[in-house]
Amino acid sequence: GENVEQHPSTLSVQEGDSAVIKCTYSDSASNYFPWYKQELGKRPQLIIDIRSNVGEKKDQRIAVTLNKTAKHFSLHITETQPEDSAVYFCSLGGNQFYFGTGTSLTVIP
Amino acid sequence: DGGITQSPKYLFRKEGQNVTLSCEQNLNHDAMYWYRQDPGQGLRLIYYSQIVNDFQKGDIAEGYSVSREKKESFPLTVTSAQKNPTAFYLCASSSGARNYEQYFGPGTRLTVT
């Protein structure tokens, strides 16, 4: 199947700082790139997504950038808050969905 | 959140027993998926179905079986052939197989002893 690499696996930031998570992939046919947030013991929930005809998308403090040529996309969270602490997964949409291994983000108050 | 349910939330079984996990959605979605999540790992696809009466194996289908007799239901059976079945199982649905958001159920935590 598709290989999706996600980095870093853990990330700690001070409240108010920015956090960046990056994913790389190999399937050039993918054209849908969602990001999910999963709190402990809960279901993953979509926080932002981007399609291949767009290079960047922003929703308040969250943004995603996509470089299809280099086959990587990144999640950017600005002005982090303690409630941003969770595990974040990148994903690729194709005939089936592929997920990165997750980034555990801790925002330190 | 609403629209896709899984039951039960916690399930305990003895080794050697088959067990079936329920997944129901009322979102009128065509596609449904089963994932397995182990601690510190991402979601791994077990099976998916893009339409009623049709389904495909994912990356880790061995020891699992599914059926898709109704659009709204996609039960997963964990058989005794699955060597390490203890995990968190997530069901998801989407309106199409490509380019559409997946909605996840609340998950079932299966423990086999």
List the helices and strands and how they pair.
The complex is a heterodimer of chains A (109) and B (113).
Chain A: E1 4-7, E2 10-14, E3 19-25, E4 32-38, E5 45-51, E6 56-59, E7 62-67, E8 72-77, E9 86-93, E10 97-99, E11 103-108
Parallel strand pairs in A: 2-11
Antiparallel strand pairs in A: 1-3, 3-8, 4-5, 4-9, 6-7, 7-8, 9-10, 9-11
Chain B: E1 4-7, E2 10-13, E3 19-25, E4 31-37, E5 43-51, E6 54-57, E7 64-66, E8 76-78, E9 87-94, E10 103-104, E11 108-112
Parallel strand pairs in B: 2-11
Antiparallel strand pairs in B: 1-3, 3-8, 4-5, 4-9, 5-6, 7-8, 9-10, 9-11
Task: Give a brief description.
The complex is a heterodimer of chains A (109) and B (113). With 109 residues, chain A is mostly beta strands.
Structural key phrases:
heterodimer, A: 109 residues, mainly beta, six-stranded mixed beta sheet, five-stranded antiparallel beta sheet, B: 113 residues, 11 strands
Distance between the termini of chain A: 39 Å
Which outline of chain A best applies?
A: globular
Q: Give start-end ranges of low-pLDDT stretches of chain B.
A: none
Assembly level: heterodimer
Percentage of residues in strands of chain A: over 45%
Name the structural class of chain B.
Answer: mainly beta
User: Helical segment tally of chain A?
Assistant: 0
Largest interface: A-B, 25 and 24 residues
| CA gyration radius of chain B, whole angstroms | 13 Å
- Give me the secondary-structure category of chain A: mainly beta
Helix residue percentage of chain B: under 10%
Q: Specify the overall morphology of chain B.
A: globular
Largest sheet of chain B: 7 strands, mixed
- How many individual helices of chain B? 0
Residues in helices of chain A, as a percent range: under 10%
User: SSE order of chain A, as H and E?
Assistant: EEEEEEEEEEE
